[in-house]
Amino acid sequence: MLGDISLAFLSDWSTTLFLVFGGCCSNALALEQLVSLYPRSGSLITFCQFLFITLRGIPQFVQFTPWPRLRERQIPIIPYLIQVLLFYFIALLNNAAFAYKIPMTVHIIFRSGGLVISMFMGWLLLGRRYNWTQIVAVVFVTSGVVLTTFSASKPKTAKPADFTAATSGSNTYTYATGILILLLALVLSGLLGIAQDRTYALYGSHSNSKAPSKPENGSTPASAETKKEQKKPAIWQEQMFYLHFLSMPMFYSVRQDLFNQFQALGDGPVLYLALPASNSLSQTSWHSYSSIPIPAAYLYLLLNTLTQLVCISGVHRLTSRVSSLTVTLVLVVRKAVSLIISVTLFGSGVEGNKAVMMWTGAMLVFLGTFVYSFGGSKVEAKKKQE
User: Fold this and answer.
1) Rounded to whole angstroms, how far apart are CA atoms 233 and 237?
2) Is residue 250 part of a domain?
């Protein structure tokens, strides 16, 4: 019995960590490949992710008999509206930043600086107080973000020298615009976090998927009402669906941009998929197969969309099983792994002193996040004692 429980526990955690690390890291790799070829495809990437996650959740949250309608929600529709606006613009801004010469390495590390924004928002809007450990950690994170930002602040320009002089100012302006876009996305992320905290405080925890209690006095295991209650999806699943589902109409305003981006991807290099030309499996000569051309960018887009669902599911699954402190630590490690893979496979885009700045900044960001989490655990322990 104990062995079965241990195996189930290990299997559950293995699945969760595989979804987080496998899904999110492969999603970052697919995204980097795609935006390196098509840096202005951010809106299309966001649309495909939102559409796929919405379609994936429809069977769970939409009832089709006697007519199509949304199932009963655990959270009213109104609290979702502000979150939907914030979530939609955050996703668009983060993906749009790639069009402004923001390397993936800087993108990863800069988004790790959301801890600073969250702390400031908590102090400004919620009146939260922080200890010295947390303040020092934020200084680390801020310094790391600044170093990393400047490590790639001067993208390489074309030769000859007179052309370089003419375009260097334009490149600096473009890069600064991308950084401002990421900064705005961080601010909106802080506001989204506050909105979600308020929603969970009012309507329940991150998960309602607790195991049913054992029946007492030989009563029946569960009534029909209890079984119905147990089948309800967790609140995080409901929230994930509605944040994407309610955002879909907003893409109507950028429909022409989406069409142009999709067409640009289709006009790029193609890969050839070999398929049998006849029903006879015995024919194995080269003329028994036909090649179907598929734009390579479409495959990267499909891979990015699928891994985005895996990544989000893994993060929310983790959130439903452990404390926010553990979630923070796991996600920081995940970002570090993504950064290392990105630099190892594709190069950092910076060399010499710039590379030293980037890695020093990365270490400060991750160190600061760990220290901040440690300071937060001390605050929680103090609250429990009181």
Assistant:
1) 6
2) yes
